[in-house]
Sequence to fold (514 residues):
Amino acid sequence: MGIERASGLLLHVTSLAGRYGCGTLGRAAGEFIDFLAASGQSCWQVLPLGPVCSHWNYSPYSSPSAFAGNEMLIDPEALLAAGWLDASELPAGPEAAAGDFCDLDAAAAAQAARLDAAARRFYAASGAGAGAAFDRFCAEQGEWLDDYALFRALADRFATFQWSAWPGDISRREPAALARWRSELQAPIRRRQFEQFVFFGQWRQLKQAANSRGVRIIGDIPFYVNFESADAWARPEIFQIDPGTGLPDAVAGVPPDYFSATGQRWGNPLYRWRRDGALHAPTLAWWTARVRHMLNLVDVLRIDHFRGFDSYWEIPVHEPTAVRGRWLPGPGVPFFDHLRRELGALPLVAEDLGELTPQVEALRDRLGFPGMKILQFAFDGQRANPYLPHNFQHANCLVYTGTHDNNTSNGWFYGPETSAATKQVVLDYMNLGHRDEFHWQFIRLAMQSVARLAVFPVQDVLGYDGRFRMNTPGRADGNWRWRLAAGALTPEIGGRLLQLTDMFNRRPPARTLS
Fold:
């Protein structure tokens, strides 16, 4: 993974403070980097950076593209500085009025209007070399950008991401239809290209700023993509999609377990991993391009649902639940051997949570990828629980108090989901005779573990309760909306975090990252 013993914070970009409905890549992002550096933190972990939509309740794990950036994160003040927006087009009022939760519907609508105005001015402007930089970006990213921009323009025209419901000729990507629609939708296509040009320019500057302060960015890549995406529409040959109907013949999910009697039917199309007994070359090429693209954006990449590379649950498309499915072998070691041949070293983290088989753990260990340890999962009464710090078998792992899918640590400990008996077990394990400031004690427990990297959701550093969790799995709406209040991360909190970081030797020597 290339990270010394260190610690960091988990905060998605949308959760940054500001006055734009949700966080952006602007001033508040720079201030957060300053806080990380001042408090001795070496990593900033974010959630997936792809576009989000109301159609999927703004989940960063459900996107219309595996390559594009989320235009809602673009900093409007940078557009103003470039001359592409007028001051009257930015909201008035202090950011403190933004509150504790994003209004993502309003943020999306306002950002769309700003980007439409900025794109018009950009294309009307001349000089300053902006056109050459844009052309260069479009040429470099054309492998995915051209299809994505057309896909979004068509989805707007037909008012649906369900490309199989579009007129048959463009749904099937017939050459004449592609040419006709590219001509007819030229303006909205160029608008989408402009958004991506700006997003990746701003992200590159932000990452450079973080690296210059000794902070690495940990990104996140979902294993599956949506059927209603530019990827499935443009590259159906890499998915299990019936060429006759244009629809998946099987979909993804996980089987019934302790938590769900019917399992989870996610509905994503499955990859076509093999053909004629060998790994499918087009699928390998697409995945290689995807991982290369992401590693150009971040320093370390967390792979969600890592077990899918060992085995995956195939559900016939007509089945309403995940009960009737079967395990099939994933691409395994040959897939990662191919990536290493093409890309070199792979700074990847395996999301290896849930009920894993010995084969999944063996794959992770053979590849040398660090896994994840979640302290909230440690106290089930089993002395051999692998999430208890004394059971960590080696330092090649990341320890979290909780993730974006967990309750906050205070919400978990003080709330009703943790029984009185379990609370006492937790206190006994931590050698505490009191329940005060549980979040700091939990952070301390993670810090003192052997895990190479300790990561904490910002809500845990702030001691927030369960009202401020980021996501509740299984609940469709109300997620992904928590955001920082301006000034919440005070110097006092940073100093306390720095003290623990130093105490447990998690502050690497001062340096910048190339």
Q: What stands out?
A: Residues 102 and 398 are 29 Å apart (CA to CA). The mean pLDDT is 94. The chain is about 40% helix and 10% strand.
